[in-house]
Amino acid sequence: MTDRFDYDDIRGSVEKHLAKDNVGWIRIVTECLEDIKEHCDGEEKTYPSVSQIKQKFGALRIYLGGVTDDPFIQSSLEDAVQKAGRSCERCGNVSRIQCIGAWYANLCCWHAHEAAVERSEKFPKIGLNLRSKSATLQCRSCGYLGQIAWGVSGHRCPACVSKGW
Ligand SMILES: [Zn+2]
Ligand SMILES: [Zn+2]
Questions:
Q1: Spacing, Cα 112 to ligand 1 middle (Å)
Q2: Residue 95 alpha carbon to ligand 1 centre in Å
Q3: What is the Cα gyration radius of the chain?
Q4: What is the pLDDT of residues 98-128, one digit of tens each?
Q5: Taking a C-beta distance cutoff of 8 angstroms, is the pair 82, 62 a contact?
Q6: Alpha carbons 165 and 163: distance in angstroms, whole number
Q7: What are phi and psi of 9, to 5 degrees?
Q8: pLDDT tens per residue, range 21-56
Q9: Angle at which helices 71-85 and 23-43 cross, to 10°
Q10: What global pTM score does this model have?
């Protein structure tokens, strides 16, 4: 990523790093950097340079161009990372890290299904969280980890229940 991060177009810059359809995370990171901008304006400090924003193993990573010792900036970035850890990259719904084949993503059950279907067109044996051992939180139909529609579902995720998978 060679584009310089543009504090006059925070959302546009975040979109370039995270790809446009990851609206859930784009919102979190944009809010975080808007707060940081406001804070720096108030203290007449220069904005921290952002070199990279990406998802790695299902977690949000925000890399700065240099070290910052500003506690406000540090805690704002930490908060954004923690919030993203519980939020679907695509829509911001509650989520957990999912393993789709050999690929990790933080997705709600709806978007995990979409991603798994997309992937399975190229790799037919792909499934969700095939190696997971966390049975309590796992959908018995598709393997999704996280939101189980308790009660009527036969221990399945809301996407499997509503689409009859
Ligand atoms: Zn989602
Ligand atoms: Zn399911």
A1: 7
A2: 8
A3: 18
A4: 998 888 999 999 999 998 888 878 877 777 8
A5: no
A6: 6
A7: -140, 70
A8: 999 999 999 999 999 999 999 999 999 999 999 999
A9: 170
A10: 0.90
